[in-house]
Structure formats: structure tokens, C-alpha cells
Design brief:
The protein is of the alpha+beta class. It is built from 4 helices and 5 strands. Strands 1-2-3-5-4 form a 5-stranded antiparallel β-sheet.
């Protein structure tokens, strides 16, 4: 198993770098070329969501991205350090109350990001606890052909 780990300040300009690195590592891991755009989009959404949560809650710690290459799958974990209850990190299928202010707008955007991720990635898991939230996404890899 090979792991590439990124940590970056919660600034929107770093999300693009995370997308580019994720796509490069996914390609090297054997993720199908046709799926690489989905990988980029999903990582962008997950990182943007983590940055937004950090900004909203005044968290100064870094956003964490782990790119994990395994024998039959490639996984990406995007973690934030927002110590909020699981309901604040949301669930892709949860309904949101009507927005009443900037914080509610940010939470609604966070929920929309989760919905986009769920539409892009078949294997996605969202968890949260008092230490922060984690989005884990996985894609199958195509094994390299064995040359004679």
C-alpha cells in the first residue's frame, strides 16, 4: 500500500493543487482515464467543503488529504478539523432547514457539495466526530497488463 499525504492551509487557492495532485496519483495508481475527471471534481468538492468548514468555524489547522493506493482500489480521504457534531458535517441524504443567514448558507453549500460527491463517486463514506470530519472516496484500479 502506498500513501501520499497532503496538508494545506484552509485557503481556496490550495484546492486546485489538491485536485491536480489527486489526479496525477490516481492515474499512476491505475484509475481508468475516463474516471479521472470525476476524481478531480470529487476531490475539489471535498476540499472546498473542508476549507469552507474551517473558515466558517474559525479552525486554523490544515485540511488533510490522503491518497491511498491499494492493490484493487484507489482511495482518497479528505479530513477537516472542525470539532462539530456529526449533524453539522451532514449526511448526503439529510434534509436541511431553510437558510436564515451566512452560517446557514455555508452549511447548505456544504450539503450541496456532499450531494455532488455522492453523484460522482459510487463508494463514498462521510463520518464526523468531535475531532472533525472525514470524507473517504474509493475507485477501482485497472491492473497493469503482464507483458510476455
Amino acid at each position: 500500500m502506498a500513501i501520499v499525504e497532503l496538508r494545506f492551509s484552509a485557503l481556496p487557492e490550495h484546492v486546485r493543487t489538491a485536485r491536480l495532485v489527486a489526479a496525477a496519483v490516481a492515474r499512476r495508481a491505475g484509475v481508468d482515464e475516463a474516471v479521472l475527471d470525476e476524481v478531480r471534481l470529487a476531490v475539489g468538492e471535498a476540499c472546498s467543503r473542508a476549507v469552507g468548514l474551517h473558515v466558517l468555524h474559525g479552525v486554523e489547522g490544515p485540511v488533510r488529504v490522503a491518497l491511498i493506493e491499494e492493490e484493487k482500489k484507489f482511495s482518497i480521504e479528505v479530513g477537516d478539523e472542525t470539532p462539530t457534531p456529526a449533524t453539522a458535517h451532514g449526511n448526503a441524504g439529510a434534509s436541511m432547514p431553510p437558510s436564515t443567514g451566512p452560517a446557514d448558507d455555508e452549511e447548505a453549500e456544504s450539503e450541496m457539495g456532499l450531494a455532488v460527491i455522492s453523484g460522482l463517486v459510487d463508494d463514498v463514506e462521510v463520518t464526523a466526530d468531535g475531532n472533525g470530519g472525514l470524507i473517504r472516496m474509493s475507485w477501482p484500479v485497472t491492473p497493469e497488463p503482464v507483458l510476455p
